[in-house]
Amino acid sequence: MKRKVFFYTGLAIVTMLCVWFIASIPNPNLVQVLAALIPPIIVGIFIEYTQRLRDKLYMLLEKSPFKNKNCTILLIGSAGSGKSSLANCWGFPDVNSTTTTDSFQTYIKSEKDFKITLLDYRGQDLTQITTELDSKYRENIFAAIFVVDVVAREDENKNPLLTPDQQIKWLSYGSDDETYKKIKNRVYAHSDFFGIAGIQGIFNVIYSLKLRHVMFLINKYDLIEKLLDKLPDSYISDPEESIKKEFSDFQNKIWQFCKNVDYPIRNLTIDVISVSRGTNTNKIYAKIVDDYKKWLDKYGWVEERD
Question: Which of 55, 64, 150, 295 is most open to solvent, judged by the fewest CB atoms within 10 Å of its CB?
Answer without folding.
Answer: 55
